């Protein structure tokens, strides 16, 4: 029974660390750009878009599709980087255990 208590204590400690990590991830950000930096997107570690910045030079009413593509590319890259950051931080807590769906 002592072994089970030890395991439960470890699980509780891991849960506390994961809750703290989730809070920390909301404060960490990553940035991605497209169009040579014309579109910049900042995303936090919880995959929330914090800001989108678009240089005036790429705003062409005659080519809205190009601007849409630039925004989409920057957002997707920022989200990918954010997920990668979250996975790396989670790996530090779980010791590499694969716990799908945690973030």
Structure description:
The chain has 103 residues and is an alpha+beta fold. The protein has a single domain (2-94), classed as Ybab, Chain: A. The chain is 55% helix and 17% strand. A 3-stranded antiparallel beta sheet has the order 1-2-3. The longest helix has 31 residues, at 64-94. It is rod-shaped and about 70 Å long. The two termini are 32 Å apart. The relative contact order is 0.17.
- Count up the helices: 2
Strand portion: 15-25%
Largest sheet: 3 strands, antiparallel
Provide the structure class. alpha+beta
Low-confidence stretches: none
Tell me roughly what share of residues is in helical segments. 55-70%
Radius of gyration: 19 Å
Structural domain count: 1
CATH topology: Ybab, Chain: A
What is the mean predicted local confidence, pLDDT?
88
With strands numbered from the N-terminus, the spatial order across the biggest sheet is 1-2-3
Termini separation comes to 32 Å
For the record, the CATH class is Alpha Beta
- Quaternary organization: single chain
